[in-house]
Write a structure and sequence with these properties.
The complex is a heterodimer of chains A (about 425) and B (about 400). Chain A is α+β, with helices and mostly antiparallel strands and about 425 residues long. Chain A has 2 domains: about 180 residues, no CATH class; about 250 residues, no CATH class. Chain A is about 50% helix and about 15% strand. In chain A, the strands form 2 sheets. In chain A, strands 1, 2, 3, 4, 5, 6, 7, 8, 11 and 12 form a 10-stranded mixed β-sheet that branches. In chain A, about 45% of the residues are buried. In chain B, helix 2 crosses helix 11, helix 3 packs across helix 7 and helix 11 packs antiparallel against helix 12. The longest helix of chain B has about 35 residues. Chain B is of the alpha+beta class. Chain B has 2 domains: about 170 residues, no CATH class; about 230 residues, no CATH class. Classes of the chains: A alpha+beta (about 425), B alpha+beta (about 400). At the A-B interface, helix 2, strand 2 and helix 10 of A face helix 2, helix 5, strand 12 and helix 9 of B.
Chain lengths: ~425, ~400
């Protein structure tokens, strides 16, 4: 019966080509627009470190003076050097890393390359195992290298390609800010999006090309890039930002269980109280401990415009669907005569309903294919936009399935009302009318 | 034209009419809010910077090795830039309107107040008024002996001596009006820290901030006469005629590299690029909204064409009878036009309520003002036009039905 209904549906759709085309185009436009928007949203709100994000936490404490104090206010979103070092050396978490962003001038030894600036991350050793950074050559440095202020660096695959033509460059040196850094590792392709561990570098920023131990970076006075928030009177002194009342570092910890996270939060409160007793902190303890997804959510990393576009696209899809329901209803009702004959010849309501729904499903399938093509076109257009996140807009298999499910589901839903209405046509009245 | 017979007919197709009205209402709501959002974005994109945008180029550079004397480097660089033919003025700044990366400070009206009065942009630089083309409305520009090295100020703040303060400052008229409404701001003092006081010596008409997110505070700016020295966070600014910008930029890069080859030019661009880069998201969003509005109206229009064609085909016989009974072609045409007008009008009424509801939702989730009433007629007019345009084809076909159809059986 299914084959026969398919044949009937095809004939019916062919009979009125313009109307069929109208319905298919409306569904395709709606699906295309909403899938484009939904894919962008899906890509942007993704988990940057799948499998690890639930165990990675971002501790915040409030070391500021009383200027502008409000009870329960949000603590600064970075830590100062002193607090960062204290928390790091406390070793209360399974793994912990203190880091900040920067840019280092690189003087290539190759004659055909001009000096250039490379995005850099100055961090302690746990960064690599904690975030699961993959290595193409060599490996990360260890805590001992942090202690020794070793002149070493880990570089990205991109930089390795540029400077060493993609060869194993472990043991070679790069000249950065007039100092020689020995390469100990080359990072394989790794780009967490959003750039969760330091949102000040741009939410969907490219990854760093050079990683240097934090201790080494302050020795060599490598340029810092990122947000620096200061309070009070004392401006940065001769030792840079180390003693200054400024927050400019990010501190991440790994805590394997909720119990450990709760314990760590208590530790942060105790630490704040202790610092207050010592007179370093003036405010009552203001402590936060968010995991990766909570941190991204709190910072509203998905641009508001992208959410608005998604709503807009679904509004448009709704218009397209209502349009299709109307056209399908008109079409089915017009076939009252034909339906009346089928019913009079013994077809049950259910059979008529099935037949009409198959016709609606075919419109949905065609609209889905059209919508998929339009979504691909839409995503191509998005990628050509200048926004930072634009390059990430690609359709993944999940979204491909969602597209088809949405297209067919939506059209079947749109076909329900007309089919139900049409199968209730009284056969006698129709036959008499003709 | 008698409306009652039309209403009677419409009642026989209740479900289709409801659907059509719903579609029109949704379109109306989307169009009203969409147009409002577009206008908001366009107003935001037109935010004034107060500077001679089309006459400016910016060069940002950084040394590849720690530098010895950044102040001497900066003076030497600027001297070299001034030598380039076509250069009208050369300056230095830590930020530019709409450049994104910003430097701001909390302003106080007395050294002891517990909370800051407001937050404003802190422009540190040299020769900014002539180079940026800022319009001085009262007071004076900085004199050459107003300038001090940034290190001297930092040292004075560090040892708490207050040496060198109060320093002169030039502020924007918006900031002056906010701090001292209806008063003469010249000679007044502000504090950025209890020991850091500044005396207002001049007021410029407009100078936007680097991160002008909020229209209300976008023009709160202060300029301080500081030698910052050459470094990665400072920019050289060159003012020249619009047609000379590209040539001057190329010559300036060459001049800087000749003065000291041990550096990297990180940015070299016209100011126009900075502005369009800052507003690129608004631009993209406005474009997206326009396409959605066009698509919604198109789909709705095509839907009306499809349904109207059906009705015309369905009512061929009745039309024939009416024509046979003496109705003119114009009567038939007007019948379908009036019918469409009625349906669209019902849709619009519902749509306006919907538009209002969507606007309330948007206000909850985005920082948007209330949808002004003015925008409601825009959606209404757009849909009336689309409706009439869409029904015209089918209505003309209906009018062309000959009276003889009445006498034929199907």
């Amino acid at each position: 019966m299914f084959g026969y209904y398919l044949d009937l549906a095809l004939r019916s759709l062919k009979r009125n080509k313009v109307l069929t085309a109208l319905m298919v185009v409306a569904v395709a436009l709606g699906i295309g627009a909403s899938m484009t928007a939904l894919t962008v949203l899906h890509v942007l709100s993704g988990d940057p470190v799948p499998g690890r994000s639930g165990h990675l936490y971002y501790p915040q404490i409030d070391p500021r003076d009383m200027d502008g104090y409000q009870p329960g206010g949000e603590p600064p979103d970075q830590v100062s050097w002193i607090d960062g070092m204290n928390l790091l050396n406390a070793h209360r978490a399974d793994q912990q890393a203190l880091m900040t962003g920067g840019a280092v001038p690189i003087q290539p030894t190759r004659a055909n390359l001009d000096p250039f600036f490379a995005q850099a991350r100055y961090t302690t050793a746990d960064f690599f195992p904690m975030f699961g950074v993959p290595f193409e050559y060599g490996s990360a440095w260890n805590a001992d290298a942090d202690e020794r202020h070793a002149h070493i660096a880990v570089i990205s695959r991109t930089l390795n390609d540029k400077l060493f033509g993609g060869r194993d460059s472990v043991g070679q040196t790069i000249r950065a800010n007039d100092a020689d850094l020995r390469i100990v590792g080359v990072v394989d392709d790794w780009r967490p999006d959003p750039h969760f561990y330091d949102l000040y570098q741009g939410t969907y920023a490219e990854n760093e090309d050079v990683f240097v131990p934090l201790s080494t970076s302050t020795d060599l006075k490598l340029p810092h890039i990122g947000s620096t928030d200061c309070w009070g009177q004392t401006p940065p002194g001769s030792d840079g930002l180390k003693q200054a009342p400024c927050t400019w570092l990010q501190f991440w910890v790994e805590l394997d269980s909720p119990a450990k996270a709760a314990a760590y939060k208590t530790f942060l409160t105790h630490y704040s109280q202790e610092q207050k007793t010592l007179g370093r902190f003036l405010r009552p303890p203001g402590v936060r401990l968010r995991n990766v997804m909570q941190w991204l959510d709190f910072n509203k990393v998905v641009p508001g415009d992208v959410r608005l576009q998604t709503w807009l696209a679904f509004g448009f899809l709704l218009v397209c669907l209502v349009n299709t329901v109307g056209l399908m209803l008109a079409k089915f009702l017009r076939r009252g005569g034909e339906i009346g004959v089928r019913r009079a010849l013994g077809a049950s309501r259910r059979a008529v309903f099935e037949q009409l729904l198959i016709e609606a499903g075919m419109v949905g399938l065609a609209g889905g294919i059209g919508g998929l093509l339009l979504a691909l076109l839409g995503l191509w257009l998005v990628r050509r936009q200048p926004a930072d996140y634009a390059k990430l807009a690609h359709l993944d298999p999940v979204m491909l399935l969602v597209t088809f499910a949405l297209a067919i589901g939506a059209t079947l839903l749109a076909g329900l009302l007309p089919a139900w209405r049409a199968c209730r046509i009284a056969p006698a009245l129709q036959l008499k009318g003709n | 034209m008698d409306i009652l017979p039309i209403l009677a007919t419409l009642r026989r197709h209740k479900m289709i009419i409801w659907l059509l009205m719903l579609e029109i209402a949704l379109s109306c709501a989307i169009v009203c809010n969409g147009v409002f959002l577009i206008v908001q974005r366009m107003q935001h994109m037109e935010m004034p910077s107060g500077i001679a945008e089309h006459e400016l180029v910016q060069i940002q550079q950084a040394p590849i090795a720690p530098s010895t004397d950044r102040y001497a480097r900066a003076q030497e660089d600027m001297a070299a830039l001034r030598q380039i033919p076509g250069v009208q003025a050369v300056g230095m700044t830590n930020q530019l309107p709409f450049s994104g990366y910003s430097s701001n400070g909390g302003v106080m009206l007395s050294p002891t107040q517990p909370h800051r009065t407001l937050n404003a942009a802190t422009y540190f630089g040299e020769n900014l008024l002539p180079t940026l083309g800022l319009h001085l409305v009262s007071g004076r520009d900085f004199a050459s002996d107003d300038y001090v090295n940034a290190d001297a100020i930092l040292k004075s703040l560090a040892d708490g001596s207050g040496k060198g303060f109060p320093m002169p400052t030039i502020i924007s008229s918006t900031l002056a009006e906010r701090l001292w409404p209806q008063q003469n701001p010249l000679g007044k003092l502000i504090w950025l820290a209890p020991k850091a006081s500044f005396r207002v010596v001049g007021v410029v008409a407009t100078l936007a901030r680097a991160n002008a997110y909020d229209t209300a505070t976008a023009q709160y700016s202060m300029i301080f006469p500081l030698h910052m020295g050459a470094g990665k966070d400072q920019s050289y600014l060159i003012r020249t005629r619009p047609q000379d910008r590209q040539r001057v930029l190329t010559a300036a890069i060459a001049a800087l590299e000749q003065a000291d080859p041990a550096r990297v030019i990180t940015h070299a661009r016209r100011y126009d690029e900075i502005r369009s880069d800052y507003f690129k998201d608004d631009h993209a969003m406005a474009g997206m909204l326009v396409s959605v509005i066009v698509a919604v109206l198109l789909v709705t229009g095509l839907g009306i064409v499809g349904l109207a064609s059906f009705w015309v085909a369905q009512r061929r016989k009745q039309i024939g009878i009416r024509r046979a009974l003496g109705a003119t072609r114009a009567d038939i045409l007007r019948y379908f036009q009036t019918e469409n007008f009625l349906i669209v009008t019902f849709g619009i009424v519902v749509g306006m309520a919907m538009a209002y509801g969507i606007s309330l939702l948007l206000m909850m989730h985005y920082e948007l003002p209330h949808l002004p009433w003015l925008y409601l007629p825009i959606g209404a007019i757009a849909l009336w036009l689309i409706g009439q345009l869409a029904v015209l084809g089918p209505a003309l076909r209906a009018a062309a039905v000959p009276p003889v159809v009445a006498t034929r059986s199907v």
